[in-house]
Design a protein that fits this description.
Keywords: Membrane, Transmembrane, Transmembrane helix. The protein is of the alpha+beta class. 22% of the residues lie in helices and 25% in strands. It has 2 domains: 217 residues; 132 residues, Sandwich (Jelly Rolls). Strands 1-2-3-4-8-7-6-5 form an 8-stranded antiparallel sheet. The protein has a 7-stranded antiparallel sheet with strand order 9-10-11-15-14-13-12, with helices on both faces. The longest helix has 17 residues. The relative contact order is 0.13.
Length: 439
Amino acid sequence: MPFEDELGEAMRRTGDTFRPSDRPGLVDGGMTRGRRRLARRRAVAVTGSVLALATVGVAGGYATGSLGPDDGKASAAAPATPTAPESVAAGNVTEEQMIETFKGLLPEGRTTREEGSGTTEAPERPDGPKGPLQGPHVSLVFDDGGGAAAISLGVSVVDPAGKSAADAVTCPSQAFVQHYACTEETLSDGSRYMLFQGYEYPDRREDTKLWRATLITSEGVMVDASEWNAPAQRGVEVSRPAPPLTAAQMKALVTDQAWRTIGAQLGEPLKESPEPGQSAGAPVNKVLASLLPADLKIVDQQGDPGYGFVVADDGRGASFIQVNAQTGMQDVFTGDATTLPDGTKVMVKKENNPDDKGGSGAVGWTVDTLRPDGFRVVMMAFNAPGQGQDASRAEPVLTIEQMRAIVLDEKWRAAAGRPATEAAGPLTSRPSSAPPPRS
């Protein structure tokens, strides 16, 4: 779910879907929190290489904007080599070794603006054991005769069983990050690999293309490479139709043994703990799908306990629907609400350009509910297939009455890790009491 100059901008691009000033009842602890959790991982982890590499400890060029125009340093890249140089295998990888190893794996061409860092000590942790070494990175501008292009690569370690690892090699939904290709696969040795092919800015404010290859081994070594069709990540004119390395060359680059050798020297990755406040409940998208009218076609969905979305189509255009289900929300619900006989508060909103992302003709409808015990369910439905996208239909696929019936269903307690006050059917079936689709 969605999220401009460096790390902060990337996070805002994926996180700031709702206005903080005019939607206090919805934003404060509501949909934004859950949407940011999922969208920041799924979208920024792919498109925002600054953020994704920063979160796993890769510093330098990615986080400081060092990818830029030619600074006068130049050399010829050597033909690809299949194994790590002896100096790399010996440990304590330096910036120079990292650059030479990287260049040795590139096709023939000219390189400039060669920058990077070697392995460094992890910072002290006041609340736990010292982490693994900080992984090295390298960045340069490469020209094979077809135009100068920025290419970067970092090596780090990550808990292979954690959510961060899974999200790093999971293709993002088109609802949040529009792209033209993305593939995932598990290699024969158990490593997970993803190749994303899209744009530096999913809204296409610049024409810069971004291709990103990510590998995570079963031991937790993460190799993350990005390339652009411009001599810098952003802010410069594109120099070629596509980034220089083909899909096959990107895969060969990140799967080379050299990076595994380096990654093995960084130490054991820290085990990943659940995010603060993360629920052990059912994924929200599964609960939502079970409550939608039966003749709606679900074309996309993702979710975690607490937050999820589906993209549904009734044959007249796709509609993006997102839901948060949270407990302990007694003090954050404000606004002009109707109170039901059982004490549940219900607030309804209809507005244009609901996510402030400027999708042409976009409207959004919100139904926000708060039970007396602090259990809150809030749903928002768009007349567009995703965040910031142009309208695909006149109105959302659900009516306000349908949305109201869905968010008041007791099945939502399962999504927040709370027992239902009334028996609910299996989450895999849509109840016969669900409201009919719009005519």
